[in-house]
Amino acid sequence: MLFPDFRGRRLRANKNFRRMIRETKLSCDDFILPLFAIEGKSVKKPIDSMPGHFQLSCDHIVTAAKEACDAGVPAIILFGVPDKKDPLATRAYASDAIVQKAVQAVKEQVPDITVITDVCLCAYTDHGHCGVVENGIIDNDASLDLLAKTALSHVQAGADMVAPSDMMDGRVGEIRQTLDEEGFSHIPVMSYAVKYSSAFYGPFREAAESAPQFGDRKTYQMDPANSLEAIREATMDVEEGADIIMVKPALSYLDIIYRLKEEIDLPIAAYNVSGEYSIIKAGEMMGWVNAKDLIMETLLSIKRAGADLILTYSAIEAARELNK
């Protein structure tokens, strides 16, 4: 097809033509809103590096969940900021810990929203790593039982789905087996299967108070240079029983999202992470960019790459824009 016989502008000539032939469409159904739960009452502590987001006590978590539900967002994912930390992350799996209490509060007061919980140990360990540390080394196999205990405690509190983000080998299988044995075979697992060791996580570590106290996470999070490794990691988690596969971060890894969509016959989630959000918000504060338009274009690109679900701090803002 060549000009002048073909004129691509014909079908771009007005907004209705553009709507009718649009190949990729965002929906509120695509979004999952991350929230940070902290102990206390009436606590709404601003996260400086993430304008518009806060560490929230359970009463405010409920309010945020209602706001998301009213905007049409179908799910939230909860991260915990515990009242104390120790080497074995005991507040990750205690029945009266912060995520467990937040789950119960939301399920009681906002029953129409789906509650997903992040399963990891980094925010709960005094060393800030995602597993048990022995002699300065993360012990993969010793970490699996604690991760499974954490997932089980979340489900017993009422969580609808668990999402292990630790990147320990074998954790999906351990969690799946534990849930099945305890009568929760109906609970799905959304695995952070492809989680890169990324510079885009900085604001999140402030929000969750989870920065490592020594070293880094490169021995368990993936090298940003690798793509074949992503296929291996995702395939392993599928074989262990994952129901949804996640890629994190999203924007620098759109090619990975696309490859996984071609290779894996399961829903693909992508995490539009804190650094991606904060860069846009910083530009907005400086008056350099139109944040609303950037947010919608960013989310559209993630969906176009193949993501079925998008975890995004812009979920409510984007949902309201779509509802206009």
UniProtKB/TrEMBL annotation:
5-aminolevulinate 1 binds at R205, R217. It catalyses: 2 5-aminolevulinate = porphobilinogen + 2 H2O + H(+). Pathway: Porphyrin-containing compound metabolism; protoporphyrin-IX biosynthesis; coproporphyrinogen-III from 5-aminolevulinate: step 1/4. SMART domains: ALAD. The active site is at K195, K248. GO terms for molecular function: porphobilinogen synthase activity; zinc ion binding. It comes from the Bacteria. Its EC number is 4.2.1.24. It is an enzyme of class 4 (lyase). 5-aminolevulinate 2 binds at S274, Y313. One of its GO terms (cellular component) is cytosol. SUPFAM superfamilies: Aldolase. Keywords: Heme biosynthesis, Lyase, Magnesium, Metal-binding, Porphyrin biosynthesis, Zinc. One of its GO terms (biological process) is protoporphyrinogen IX biosynthetic process. Zn(2+) binds at C120, C122, C130. The keyword Membrane does not apply. Homooctamer. Belongs to the ALAD family. This is Delta-aminolevulinic acid dehydratase. It comes from Desulfobacula phenolica.
